Amino acid sequence: MDKKIEKKKWTAKRVVILLLLLTVVPITAYQLFAKSTVSVLKVDREILRFSVVEHGDFQEFIPIEGNVIPIKTIYLDAILGGKVTEVFKDDGDFVNIGDTIATLHNPNMTLDYMNKETQMIDIINNLQNTKASLEQNQFNLKKELLDYEHQLQSFKKEFEVNAILIDKKAISKKEFDDSKRTFEYWRNKVNLTRASIVKDSIATNLQLAQLQQSIGRMERNLDQVKENLKNLMILAPMEGQLSSLNMDMGELKNSGDRLGQIDIVSDFKVSARVDERYIQRTPLGQLCILEDQNTRYEMAVAKIHPEVNGGMFEIDLVFKNEVPKHVKRGQNVRLKLLYGEQTSATLLKRGSYFHDTGGSWVFVFNEQENKAYKRNITLGKQNTEYFEV
What we know:
This protein is of the alpha+beta class. It is built from four helices and 15 strands. The strands form three sheets. Strands 1-8-11-10-9-12 form a six-stranded antiparallel β-barrel. A four-stranded antiparallel β-sheet has the order 5-4-2-7, with no helix packed on it. Strands 13-14 form a two-stranded antiparallel sheet. β9 (287-292) and β10 form a beta hairpin. α2 (107-167) runs antiparallel to α3. The longest helix has 61 residues, at 107-167. The two termini are 88 Å apart. The relative contact order is 0.17.
């Protein structure tokens, strides 16, 4: 009878193969995985640049350049056109209020003033003559009334005497009637004259008031014409330094031409241009720092010009407290325009790595191992020196 022979599952050959697989495959897989995830680059240490990551105070700012200009400027424009006849001041001179800088000559304006002056003087004289005539008429009426009242008193007495005599039959009725009519005539004449004087007085006073107003207007017009002639003299409206003077002897200037300017040099401000990206973040009063000769001067944004030219907008800054004594007009200065409050943060020095990595990762050096490891980072605010990590 045949006997079934059982085949062995774990032969010596199979065991050896399994051991080899369990040993070689993991090693091979590890080597493949390691090569796919880790790269090693050996670099000469002498060409590397190191910076220390530190924890400290951080202030966001942008550097800007500004130009020192006077705190206030008054422009001199020609109110009336004319030919420059005299120039009394030079560019750079200091002037006081009312100083004569130059004079212009305008023959047409001078002739026009003379004609208007003559016309106005004639009109004023005529008005004054009319006024005198009205006053004389009032005087004559009052004088007549005085005479009429004197006559009335005489005829009144005569009438009263005749009234007594007629009762005594001493005079005829005709004489009495004549004296009565004469008395009543002068009485009515006096009454009419008085009423006429009252009426005429009211009209005269009204006319005189209107004439006086007209004379006043004419005199003011004449004064205005005379004042216009004064505009041919270029006077300093304030104390300061004369600059940008644009007048030469014999030169013809038109009305509205810019003749120069006067600068207040007792104080200064700074005009600067800022990238338009910061226009929404730059309000009035924004703090700015001027560092000069190891001294920190605080400034504030006093004016923001609305125009944007070439991707930049302009601001005016004024000193909050002390003004640097050595600052000169026209000087260029470097400033730090501050944004936000000073905070405590992890600080990373700026460097060229930002352009290579986009600021998403850096190499962190381990001095003990003499190796650097790539590490992902997230950058926040920045200034010219540091990134906030």
